[in-house]
Design a protein that fits this description.
The protein is an alpha/beta fold. It has a single domain, classed as Aldolase class I (TIM Barrel, Alpha-Beta Barrel). Helices cover 37% and strands 16% of the residues. The protein contains eight helices and eight strands; from the N terminus they run E-H-E-E-H-E-H-H-E-H-E-H-E-H-E-H. It has an eight-stranded parallel beta barrel with strand order 1-2-3-4-5-6-7-8, surrounded by four helices. Strand 1, helix 1 and strand 2 form a beta-alpha-beta unit. The longest helix has 18 residues. It is globular and about 45 Å long. The chain starts with a strand and ends with a helix. The chain binds 1,3-dihydroxyacetonephosphate (13P). Pathway: Carbohydrate degradation; glycolysis; D-glyceraldehyde 3-phosphate from glycerone phosphate: step 1/1; Carbohydrate biosynthesis; gluconeogenesis. It comes from Metamycoplasma hominis (strain ATCC 23114 / DSM 25592 / NBRC 14850 / NCTC 10111 / PG21) (Mycoplasma hominis). Belongs to the triosephosphate isomerase family.
């Protein structure tokens, strides 16, 4: 079984999200994958649409969440709403959150600890910034991100990790398969082989077949190429065919 998760980022308005989900639901019904779990991470404005898709054939996620129950945190959204709205998964620590909104490993850890108390799946995003750094540097970066994010956390039964080297996001560039394989082996080792590992960064219909050759890869987190529901599910067909 492999995951194919779309991160729609801030690309769709509320109504566009609704149209997208309608299309996703009906096309996914036709596809009827046996070996692919489809998911979509929506922006907060579309979060309540989850209630309209009670009987859905995809995982409904959001791209961020705050760790406090309630209080004076202007502009934040409480995990309590995610629970009430039956959200299936939350992206935590995406590189855009780290870079543009200064999210630290410590904040990411607090968010994961809070999610741990719910039945929501946290998808922890990690990855190095520098291209061509030595194996040791790159391994230390991702190990460090994982150890800090998971300090005092015990969600291995639900946690998913997405490896996303930031220099491959949104630009059509992908690392060599052996580099992703190396990242997967580091992540699996540090999490006692208990956590599914996804790859994210410029995944498309053109390169997904080659990426499927990667050993121990459990799926993909897709940005730009997920925005067209039909094209997104075509990637699901390629995964299904190659399984
Ligand atoms: P792109 O697929 O657009 O490179 O985005 C990847 C990503 O950020 C997934 O979280």
């Amino acid at each position: 079984m492999k995951y194919l998760i779309g991160n729609l980022k801030m690309n769709l308005s509320y109504l566009e999200s609704q149209n997208y989900l309608n299309e996703l639901q009906s096309l996914n019904k036709i596809k009827n994958f046996k070996n692919v779990i489809i998911g979509a991470a929506l922006s907060f404005d579309a979060m309540s649409l989850s209630l309209q898709y009670n009987k859905r054939n995809f995982l409904f996620g959001v791209q961020n969440i705050f760790y406090k129950e309630k209080g004076a945190y202007t502009g934040e959204v409480s995990f309590r709403s995610a629970v009430e709205l039956n959200i299936d998964f939350v992206l935590i620590g995406h590189s855009e959150r780290r870079k543009l909104f200064n999210e630290t490993d410590q904040l990411i850890n607090l968010k994961i600890k809070q999610i741990e108390k719910t039945s929501i799946i946290p998808i922890l995003c990690i990855g190095e910034d520098q291209e061509n750094c030595s194996d040791k540097v790159f391994e230390d970066i991702i190990k460090n991100q994982i150890l800090k994010a998971l300090e005092d956390v015990d969600v291995y039964n639900r946690l998913i990790i997405s490896y996303e080297p930031t220099y491959c996001i949104g630009n059509g560039k992908i690392p060599q398969n052996y580099h992703i394989e190396k990242a997967i082996s580091v992540i699996k080792k540090i999490t006692n082989n208990q956590v599914p590992v996804l790859y994210g960064g410029s995944v498309s219909q053109k390169n997904i077949e080659k990426l499927l050759e990667i050993k121990d890869l459990d799926g993909f987190l897709v940005g730009g190429a997920a925005l067209d529901a039909q094209g997104f599910l075509e990637m699901g067909s390629i995964i299904e065919k190659n399984n």
